[in-house]
């Protein structure tokens, strides 16, 4: 018998010295790359209609969004129109577009698009009134937000 015991050689422990650096690097990455919601919805979140042929908007910085839907307050009936963080009336749509144009450079104004995010239960009359107001002020680039789908039968669930 020997007096000395042989030590078992195994794998050394993984060093965790650089772990805080990695965690802070990931935290910093997500803080920089994440965008916060620009608008708080005062209406119920629109349940968008589906469409089979959709196209993504190129320059989102040149898009002015108009939300149409039911109020979160169940006592208020009818469609509500929201722009930025306020509820407006149909007749206030031109002033919203003019204020959005004022924020842009002169050469960017002709590329501006108005996006209408309307709930699929919203009244067509409300949407037509908005389109008429946009036509009156020569804001003719209008897009309608939809969700991607394949149901072309018109039967919504």
From TrEMBL:
Membrane topology of this protein: Single-pass membrane protein; Single-pass type II membrane protein
GO molecular function: transmembrane transporter activity
GO terms under biological process: protein transport
GO CC entries: plasma membrane
Principal location: membrane
Annotated InterPro entries: ExbD
Claim: Membrane is one of the keywords in the record: yes
UniProt-annotated location(s): Cell membrane
Transmembrane segments: 12-32
Similarity comment: family membership: Belongs to the ExbD/TolR family.
Protein name: Biopolymer transport protein ExbD
Organism of this sequence: Lutibacter maritimus
């Amino acid at each position: 018998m020997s007096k000395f015991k042989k030590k078992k050689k195994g794998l050394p422990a993984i060093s965790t010295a650089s772990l805080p650096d990695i965690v802070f690097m990931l935290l910093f990455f997500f803080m920089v790359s994440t965008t916060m919601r620009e608008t708080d919805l005062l209406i119920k979140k629109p349940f968008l209609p589906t469409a089979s042929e959709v196209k993504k908007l190129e320059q989102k910085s040149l898009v002015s969004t108009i939300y149409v839907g039911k109020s979160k307050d169940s006592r208020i009936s009818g469609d509500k129109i929201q722009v930025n963080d306020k509820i407006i009336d149909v007749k206030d749509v031109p002033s919203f577009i003019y204020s959005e144009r004022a924020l842009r450079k002169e050469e960017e104004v002709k590329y501006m698009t108005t996006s209408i995010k309307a709930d699929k239960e919203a009244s067509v009359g409300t949407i037509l009134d908005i389109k008429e107001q946009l036509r009156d002020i020569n804001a003719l680039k209008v897009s309608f937000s939809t969700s991607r789908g394949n149901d072309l039968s018109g039967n919504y669930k």
